[in-house]
Amino acid sequence: MNKWQYIFAWIGIGCFTFFIIVVVSNVWHALKDWIKIKIKAYKDRHILDHPPKGKCYCTACAHWYADDKERTMGRCDAWEGYHTSFDEFCARAHLRNDDGYKHEEWRLEK
Question: Please, which of 1, 25, 50, 86 could form a disulfide with 59 given CB 3.0 to 4.6 Å?
Answer without folding.
Answer: 86
